[in-house]
């Protein structure tokens, strides 16, 4: 008997045009969620992305799936900004400042109403993106603190809450016209983070875990 060999099965990879369509959908959704809020019609997102409704639903079967992908995309882009800041070898506090302003440019505040929505808060993709950004911000703050530039009584939660709050107004309320004010306000906040501290903060440093449990 002659032994037969089975040819290895080829791994099916998404076509380049399919990947581009998916990226266009996510980019269009991010823009429209920022401009109009998370309830913008999916058909409008498909039109802005330049794809048909069938293509959108083939990639994202429902609104929750698309919202989750947009949230993860923004968190991942913000993580990339944090990694770039960590790669800098100069002023540690300056790197932290650049990260905070980059986070505002990613419209991270527009995520707030979406993250508080009905979709699965514990989806593995979302948790992985969230953990990544939290760890990177912690490293940025630790480095600035070790350099004696960041006050000792603030935590990652303090920073991220302030970025989200000060980057408002929320999605759909002329947020694209107020960038100059956002960065001005953020810089005032950042100046208050510098060591030595000029006041005593009430309570204790806020962690992200503490925020989730509150």
Automatic annotation (TrEMBL):
It comes from Streptomyces griseorubiginosus. Pfam families: TetR_C_43, TetR_N. The keyword Nucleotidyltransferase does not apply. Residues 41-60 bind DNA. It comes from the Bacteria. One of its GO terms (molecular function) is DNA-binding transcription factor activity. Keywords: DNA-binding, Transcription, Transcription regulation. Residues 19-78 form the HTH tetR-type domain. This is TetR family transcriptional regulator.
